[in-house]
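We modelled the chain as a single entity of 236 amino acids. Its sequence is:
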Amino acid sequence: MSWNPRPWGLKVLANNLALVQMLGHELCMDFNSTSSRDIALALSQYQGNQGTSDFDLNKDLRPVAPKLRNAAVLIPIIERRAGLQVILTRRSSHLKHHPGQIAFPGGKVDQSDPSILDAALREADEEIGLSRELVEVLGTLPQHETVSAFQVTPFVGLVSDTFHPRPEVGEVDEIFEVPLNLFLDPRNFRIHPRVWFGVERRYFAVPYGPYYTWGATARILRMFCDVIGGHDEAVG
């Protein structure tokens, strides 16, 4: 498997709304600049909702007192000429769990991990070749509970522009960038239905060109939108 470099060219779309609209989505983007300092400050000062869940839009389906396993993800942000970009992955289509889905680098916390943060940085190194020396951790988002019984801690990190992606063979099919401002406007988040095990569930989704981000990744990004963008936390 070779890395497809074309998605990294998507950053140029941040300067051309017309091209984005040609992709078939009428995105509500705000291209006002947001700096890494703004993000770190917002994360440090946030005192709102202290947790999110895959069940936020399906509260009646939430299990009683689930036993949760610890996991961690890194939300990698990198500075480009067009502004800050979020680095995302497309999981391998051959994986047993969540094949082909858009995700952050991350995974479950191993016993050998000194901390939850170490787990996030280790997974980022393994999945996309991001050395921890190239990451400045800006802060954390509230923990997120997944339908698969994980309690995920999302860390936000500023990535050095010297980073060169290296997808993990068999785990990651693609590494790409999306303009940060896409995720700072709540109007870009859709709520879609899907039947799962015979029951209709609702979930957040963020379409962007050929990429369809949904589920836990989209819910975490919606919390990111609320915290960094200062928006209402209503989840519909």
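As a brief sanity check on the tokenised model: The two ends are 40 Å apart (CA to CA). The longest strand covers residues 69-80.
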